[in-house]
Structures are given as C-alpha cells and as structure tokens.
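Entry:
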Amino acid sequence: MTDKNILEGNKLIAEFMGDTFHTDIEIGSDLVDKAWLCNLDQKYYSSLFYHKSWDWLIPVTEKVCNTIEKLLDSIKESINESYEEDLMNFYSAFVEVNFFEIAIEDIYMQCVSFINWYNDNK
C-alpha cells in the first residue's frame, strides 16, 4: 500500500466510524488559507492507525459486520440477489477469518472495500 492509499483508506474509515474532523472546522471563508486547511486535514488523517493497529481496526470490523447484518435484514423481502450476494461475500470475509492467522493489511483492505461498496450502494 502506498502512503496515499493509506491516507485515503484511513480517511474513508474515519468517516464511516462517524469522524467529522474535516467538516467540524468552522472558519469564515475569507479567513481560511486553503493550503493550511488542507495541510491540517492531511496531518490529522495521517495520525490515524487503522492500517496498522488491531486496537483501531477491530471496532471497524465490528461496525462493518453490524452494518452488513442490518442490510441483510432489511433486504429479506426484496429480490435483489446481486446486492445480497455482495453482502454475503463481505460478511463471510469477516466472519470466517481467523484474526490470528491473517495480516492486518488484508482486513484493512476488506474494510476499505466494503466501505467503498457501501457508500456506492446506500
């Protein structure tokens, strides 16, 4: 993974987890130095450790699994087999994994993949 991929993935995960750092900064537009704000944003997201800390990533996997379960419950009456198949594939990637035998990078990428899919299909 490149530094850019890590930064984008951590930002995506942070937003999925409810972090709104970049939208919480309320400064009058005439006072904002855009380069400074962009640099601040990048420094903040660079300080996240979803990509290398199980302590950071396990709550994400729990939220992903809970989200998938809720989505599966909500589509039981629909006939969207493709949507359900996607969800089951993501779910099995999390439920059937032995966290002691898998690299954190693999679970991290599964989380990023699911969140991208989820954002595209909300």
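The helical segments are 3-16, 21-24, 34-46, 54-74, 81-95, 104-121.
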